[in-house]
UniProtKB/TrEMBL annotation:
Keywords: Coiled coil, Membrane, Transmembrane, Transmembrane helix. NCBIfam families: hflK (TIGR01933). The chain crosses the membrane at residues 61-84. HflC and HflK could encode or regulate a protease. SMART domains: PHB. It is a single-pass membrane protein. Residues 246-295 form a coiled coil. Residues 7-22, 34-43 have a biased composition (Gly residues). Gene3D superfamilies: Band 7 domain. GO terms for cellular component: membrane. This is Protein HflK. The keyword Transport does not apply. Belongs to the band 7/mec-2 family. HflK subfamily.
């Protein structure tokens, strides 16, 4: 060819392709990257070589070569997954029920770490601590559930809760499709039944505790009939009020009833006060009458005794007694009368101003006293 070099097949500018220098047309060959790739010291590492060496190492580690080792790895992963799925933990506030092909076992899994053969066996976890279900709570979607008709034809809004625990996990899981919903419906029905037999005043203030006890008994009996596995602990009534539409009118009625009670109480206090005073006066009059009776009787008895003693003396000496009685009688008669005693009876006093004499004597006595 026209560019042939006589020195050994160089290019048209004298560069040879086989002279060992690998020069270009201007006398210098192209610069090769450093760190050579197959065995050279100046080219970069070969990626295929790295992959090949990694495959060799993997074949030396995995028994049966690369293809057989993949199967072992897959088996180990599956076994690990099954082991993880077969181990479960039951917390202290929980109980577990294992199912073998959908059939529950007799034993109940207590708190701790347990093992079952998944996927042939599964487990259902149930909380056994006390739980609360609110019914008719204000501001919730079920607030209308608390509207009930009382026995005296009043509408009341009762907000209450049901506190319950699960004592039979298997019955709770498999006897009812929706235990919480069933409990709510039964609780509403029981509360409506009890409230419908009582006046609204019992729900508002007077007999809440008695109503709660009666409702709890009805709920427990119904849930036992269903085999729910639920134990009802308490049914506290949190609030009871009239509907908002008639709240003002109801408050007026309440205030009127309170005023009535206050007026009746004040009237009773006044009646008790007046009755006490009357009873005191009556007791005083009875005491005075009894004292007067005793006085009159004693005086009568004394007079009778004195008469008897005088009569006895009269029987002993009638003349002396008669004279003494005469003198005592005259003394009693003449003691307070005006008397003038004139000594000497020979002369006749034609005129004697006795009244003037008595008046003058009285004035003299008064002057001497002063």
């Amino acid at each position: 060819m026209p560019w042939s070099n006589q020195n050994g097949g160089g290019g048209p500018w004298g560069g040879g392709g086989g002279g060992g220098n690998n020069q270009g047309p201007w006398g210098n060959g192209p610069n090769r990257p450093r760190g050579g790739g197959g065995g050279g010291n100046g080219g970069p590492p070969d990626l295929e070589d790295i992959i090949r060496r990694s495959q060799d190492r993997l074949r030396s580690i995995v028994p049966g070569g690369f293809n057989g080792g993949a199967v072992v790895i897959i088996v180990l992963v599956v076994v690990a997954f099954l082991a993880i799925q077969s181990v479960y933990t039951v917390q202290p506030d929980e109980r577990g029920v294992e199912l073998r092909f959908g059939q529950p076992k007799e034993e109940i899994s207590m708190p701790g770490l347990h093992f079952h053969f998944w996927p042939f066996e599964t487990v259902e976890i149930v909380k056994v601590t006390e739980q609360q279900q609110n019914i008719g709570a204000a501001g919730s979607a079920q607030s209308s559930a608390g509207l009930m008709l009382s026995g005296d034809q009043n509408i009341v809004n009762v907000q209450f809760s049901v506190l319950y625990t699960v004592n039979e996990p298997k019955d709770y899981l498999f006897n009812l499709e929706n235990p919480a919903g069933t409990l709510q419906q039964v609780a509403e029905s029981a509360m409506r039944e009890v409230v419908g037999r009582r006046p609204a005043q019992d729900v508002f203030r007077d007999n809440r505790e008695e109503i709660s006890t009666e409702v709890r008994a009805i709920i427990q009996g119904t849930m036992d009939t269903y085999g729910s596995g639920i134990a009802i602990n308490a049914v506290p009534i949190e609030d009871a009020a009239p509907p908002r539409e008639v709240a003002d009118a109801f408050e007026e009625v309440q205030r009127a009833e309170q005023d009535e009670d206050r007026f009746v109480e004040e009237a009773n206090q006044y009646a008790n006060q007046r009755l006490g005073q009357a009873r005191g006066q009556a007791a005083q009059i009875r005491e005075e009458a009894a004292a007067y009776k005793d006085q009159v009787v004693n005086e009568a008895q004394g007079e009778a005794q004195r008469f008897i003693s005088i009569y006895d003396e009269y029987q002993t000496a009638p003349d002396v007694t008669r004279q003494r009685i005469f003198l005592e009688t005259m003394e009693a008669v003449l003691k307070n009368s005006e008397k003038i005693i004139v000594e000497g009876g020979q002369g006749v006093v034609p005129y004697l101003p006795l009244n003037e004499i008595n008046r003058t004597a009285g004035q003299r006595q008064q002057g001497g006293t002063q």
